[in-house]
Amino acid sequence: MKKITISADLAVYENNAELPDDVQKLMQEAIDAREKSYSPYSQFKVGAAILLENGEVVTGSNQENASYPAGLCAERTAIFYAGAKYPNTRILKMALTARSEKQEVAVPTPPCGSCRQAIAEYEVKQDQPIEIFFMGEKGKVVKAQSVSDLLPLIFDSTYL
Question: What's this model's pTM, rounded to 2 decimal places?
Answer without folding.
Answer: 0.95
